Amino acid sequence: MRSLNLISVLLLMLLGSTTIAAQTAQPKATPPPPAPPRSVEFPKPVESTLANGLRVIVVERPNSPLVAAQVVIRNGGEVDPDGLSGLADLTAGLLTKGTEKRGAPDIAEAIEALGGSLDSGAGWDSSRASLNVLSSKIAPAMEILADIVRRPTFHEEELERLRQQYLDNITLEMGNPGAIARYVAARVVFGDAPYGHPLSGTSESIAKITRGDIVKLHAAYYRPDNAILVFGGDIKAKDAFSLAEKFFGDWKKPATALPAASSGSAKAETTNKARVVVVDKPDAGQAAVVVARTGINRRHPDYYSGIVANSVLSGYSGRLNQEIRIKRGLSYGAGSTLETRRYVGPFAASAQTKNESGAEVASLLIGEVSRLATAPLPDAELVPRKAVLMGGFSRNLETVNGIVAQVAALALHDLSLDEINRYIGSVQAVTADDVRKFAASRLDAGGTNIIIVGNAKAFLPELSKQYKEIEVIPLGELDLNSGQLRRAPTSASQ
User: What is the CATH code of the structural domain delimited by 46-250?
Assistant: First the structure.
């Protein structure tokens, strides 16, 4: 009898919890509006410049037990020589792989013994080496950071090991329609200008890079008058400046001037007419669709209008995903990016879909970007998309790594460091009309290129109804080393 009563009680409890779960699981018809943005004052950076030209910036945050430090070199993949794409990235990747007095295992063990982390890499317009460690261990950790930046040896053995990793990654990516589409889009938008080549190189370029090439790039650009050192966390400014002087003060500034910026970088925006490029990959399980064009640089006066416009398009609740995934079920996700660099960067909207709907998705991407310049943007849509930007920015500044990265980015682009305190207000001030004007002037569909990578026979007939001039490139003929995108025919094929 007692067992029956117990069973009854359990059944009633289960029924009640199921009912509650069902009630709470019902989605609300209208999500609650975002709360008003709070006024936040982030710590004000202080800075000093060493006699050798090294700019040192410190952001004190004593409520954290950690210190993050980052050395930023003011050049990255945009200075890769012709035919050697990936050189800057490979050079930065080798910084932690051995110095004049430490091998790669020694560096890893020394940082681990301090309970810290150390990494390096390159992007567009910058290369970096980053450190994160307890504030009590910052001095010995800084000695290691200075060592890898100033005195790397680029051992042949480490170069070959890293070269093989790059080649393996390239092989994997060349089997991925999404990765291929991104690489092709960069070449279509920028051609043979520096931003056009793959940042991590191609199989041909990585195979050609020699140790001499790496040593030459390091000697040309890794110098104190081309570098920024940023500290953030539990460290006093005077102590950070002392560490900078101790470990970087004798870093000699070369007598030679920095190499002149490439004219191709300064005029990154191409004037060619929009292209429609199809890369035929018959074994592709799905098609990757990208629409891409030039956008703006980081110092553009419409920067905040631009990032708000992109936020309206991108994200789970953005227009692209709403139209292509949620409304039509044509993709697992669609979004866009507005990359702001030293020179004009790219804008791209993308989605992956079944091969048969490749042309349709291309039209939808173009249509939604165009609609941003013509259709109304109600506050019910604009306010939440601005809240996403402000929330993401604030979350990034909750860690010492995040605040160092933000300050380093401002310094890299020669922007006021106080802009970190103006970001939220600047985003909040963007109006629907600002977004419309930005989209009309900077995202015009007439100058937007279309790239589709997939099984061409599944979508090419429909695409041909919309566009007269379509470049179809079999994957085997694709050449990412050139803005022409096609391999030169061999004598046998001729």
Answer: 3.30.830.10
